[in-house]
Amino acid sequence: MKTSVIITTYNRPDMLLKVLEGLEYQTRSADEVIVADDGSGAQTKEIVHRFMQSFMYPLYHVWQEDRGFRAARIRNKAINKSDGQYIILLDGDCIPGKHFIKDHLSLAKKGFFFQGKRILINRRLSQAFTYEDGNSFSKMVKYIFSRNVSNGHHVIRWPGFPAYSSTRLGGIRSCNMGFFREDIFAVNGFNQNFIGWGREDSELAVRLYKYGIKRREHPFMAVCYHLWHKEHERKRLTINDVLLRKAIESNEYYCADGLSQK
User: Fold this and answer.
1) pLDDT at residue 229, rounded to an integer
2) Distance CA 16, CA 7 (A)
3) How far is CA 25 from each of CA 5, 19, 33, 227, rounded to the nearest angstrom?
4) What is the dihedral of CA 57, 62, 66, 70, to 10 degrees?
5) Are 173 and 201 in contact (CB under 8 A)?
6) 3-state secondary structure at position 108
7) Quick check: 189 pLDDT over 80?
8) Which helix (H) or strand (E) is 90 found in, with range?
């Protein structure tokens, strides 16, 4: 199944480099990678173009002008650029484990989107942390006991543990999420009325649920390593909460301002 990985980023070329390195060392490669750039400067473009020369699969850079936090819009732009039957979202500060894509695809199931898990790397460790650390079980155990990471139980890879499903909103995070192309287009993607940090991924989940898609997850597969960063400004969170509430109260699953508004 052709798979597209979309990485959302904004002016953190140092972290993006680590994420792209992690995608180079996968047990199952992506068929294409698209960097969804929410208005970064020249350094990010240089990093992407450097990797374009060495990647074993197509790498694209989709950019929009910096007009504040517009993750919903740039993700839609990247989804429209993509060609995969299955799409995996990953943030530019989340390093994938080496089985990340393989696990996503093994857990992909019709009628579901997949919500992945993350291990949180603390401020002290984040600068030095790379994909090599994430792929070393002994190092990760050491980091857990030294309290340099949170959610450390996800470090155990246990394919035999059963996946489970729900329609809950808690823990929805588009920094590690997978869905079938036909499903994201059926609901018209992310709602581009969301500007500023927060709730655009939860609102998408609400509409997917209304469309008839459930959430699938697994605590020990398809894990990424979330590097520490300062929290985003939350000036529009109250407005975004209103948009989320409207989606919950509505019977509609298709948003007016989404993938079809290019």
Assistant:
1) 85
2) 8
3) 14, 10, 13, 18
4) -90
5) yes
6) coil
7) yes
8) strand 86-91
Q: Are 49 and 16 in contact (CB under 8 A)?
A: no
With beta carbons less than 8 A apart as the criterion, state whether 227 and 109 touch.
no
| Tens digits of residue pLDDT in 108-166 | 999 999 999 999 999 999 999 999 999 999 999 999 999 999 999 999 999 999 999 99
Q: What CA–CA distance (Å, rounded) separates 250 from 147?
A: 43
Q: How many residues comprise the chain?
A: 262
CATH of domain 3-249: 3.90.550.10
Residue 255 structure tokens: 């948003």
CA separation for the pair 233, 204 (Å, rounded): 21
> Higher confidence at residue 232 or residue 130?
130
Task: Report how far apart, in Å, the C-alpha atoms of 211 and of each of 177, 184, 226 are.
Answer: 17, 10, 30
Claim: this prediction has a pTM higher than 0.85? yes
- How many angstroms separate the CA atoms of 234 and 44, rounded? 24
The answer to whether 227 and 94 have CB atoms below 8 angstroms apart is yes
Compute the distance between CA of residue 18 and CA of residue 8 in angstroms, rounded to an integer: 13
| Alpha carbons 253 and 184: distance in angstroms, whole number | 11
Phi, psi (5° rounding) for residue 97?
-65, 165
- The one-character DSSP state at 152 is G
Going from the C-alpha of 109 to that of each of 16, 42, 143, 179, the distances in angstroms are 29, 39, 33, 9
pLDDT of 61 > 80? The answer is yes
128: DSSP letter? T
